[in-house]
Amino acid sequence: MIESDIADFDLARSRARIRAALDGVITIDAEGIVVEWNPAAERIFGYSADEAVGRVMADLIVPPAMHAGHRDGMARYLASGEGRVLDQRLEMPAITADGREITIELTITSFTAGGEQWFTGWARDITDLKRTEHALAVSEQRFQAVVEHSSDVITIIDRDGNWLYTSQAGTRLTGYPKGFDPEGGIFSLLHPEDTGLALQTLQEVMAGTRGPDEPVELRIIDADGKTLRFETVGVNMLDNPAVEGVVLHARDVTERHAAEAELGLRTQQLAGVLGSIQLGVLVEDRRRHVAVVNDAFTKMFSTPVTAGELVGADCAAMAEQVKDFFLDPARFVEGIDRCIAGRAPVSEEVTLADGRVLERDYLPVLSEAGDIDGHIWMYRDVTDRKRAEEEREHMLEAERLARRSIEASQAVLEVQNRSLRELDRLKDEVVATVSHELRTPLSSIVSFGELLDDVQVGPLNDEQQEFVTTIRRNADRLIRVVNDLLLLARLESDTIALAYEPVDLADMARSVVAAYQPMAEEKGIALAIAGGSGPSGLADRERLEQVVSNLVTNAIKFTPPGGQVAVGVREIGSSHCIEVTDTGIGIPADEQEELFQRFFRASNAREATIPGTGLGLAVCHAIVRLHAGQIDVHSTEGEGSTFRVIIPARPLDDGMGYGG
What we know:
single chain, alpha+beta, Beta-Lactamase, 22 strands
């Protein structure tokens, strides 16, 4: 009786455990009939114990496609005692009461009781687990695919600096095979000059003092020995158990760096060009920061900083700062936004608060893909042009009103023009005649002056000698003036033919310097030849020597005592150059264009009461023109002047100049 009670107790305890088990527990007999179906099995498969017990288990939960296999396995075990699926943890599909297919983890055991064979299965629903595992696997595959196909190189380094992993982009960009592990580790691939920076950056990332938004540029030596540039950021994932390292993201910026260098060069070249034009030019990059700006722009808007200091400035903020320069500030800013939004060239006028009118041209800079790469703004001051246009309109109106009057007076004007031309001809004739007529009495005056100066005629007292000297000096001066007038008239009428001959220009220059050395010494001026030997060429020596003499006498005349005058001869390409440089009073800048006109004298020469007729330079200009050359001056008032004569090494037109 006691043994029976114990057995009943053990059976009750076992059943209680089965009912409380989290796994579904199903017991079947040798025919596959369910004899035990615990609450967990009810939850897993949707059948209550009352519905399941007494039915064939295969009909309840085994998928139809597996029925035959299930029957064959049962029969084989009952016949031979061999069961491949017993006492193993299996994963297999199962069918629930509502027809869903789930995945279960199943362990089957067999036992004998009362002379009968029984089977107990322990089932666990792992559908969600398998779904999660599948999702994780897919996610991992996706992540792996993204990493391996990323254009950026992804590298993982452990806390000791050991190289753990590099993505496919690393092998693709550097040419090293996958798994390549050089003796010095990843740092051996760095350019030697960047090793220190790389180690410092890695330490800062590990210490948490450098974030992923603080990139550094490192140089890598690839498999072919070429230098590549990578923009690199590090992410500290040492505490992440899945990584336990520092993840480096490196982007190949080699081409960008080369492009930036090229852009920098082009920018410098562009800045040089822009610096020489009067347009105010501003070039923005795609972020609307100043890329290039010229001095004309800063002057136009009176910016407090230089063009160089504006580079990199935010153009939108700058527009807000300068908008008050314009008559309608809001319209100015809106106009900029409208131009940028339109993505097309625009030309318009804007008016400044001070009344100036600017013409603004906008050009978008588009990439090959049609994206905006930048913006070009050009401003030109058209105030004078606008005023001129307005005046032109008034003039046109006046012209329309006066046209009839003008047409009626054309005949009168033609008569007046003929009269003026005749007067000009008569003037030249009078000048030539008067000059010619003056030569005879002047020659007599000079001759008698020389006679009076002759001691054989009779002695003169000091006062008489001074009078004679004055007569001779002024007579000589008048003769030079008359000769210059006559020569200039002939030169300007092209009636003089040049007598070309071989001329040693340096020898000619030395001859002139020697001739005027006493004049220079008397005034306390150092007169010298600059340089040694010089070129030879074909020229009219007499006329060319007259040019150099005029320039040297002028230089001595307009240079204060203690100054210097230098004469130089050199070659410029296929031409010869004669230069006369002095440290004299110079010539006002606004008067230099008129310097070679007849009778013109600089204002500072007149104010200093330095004598002269204003004919010498006109004669020089005419003689040089006959040689098919040019004469110019570079002068700074108060510092001195340089007159430069340039003539061809060989004459034009078979040896004849303009006067031939």
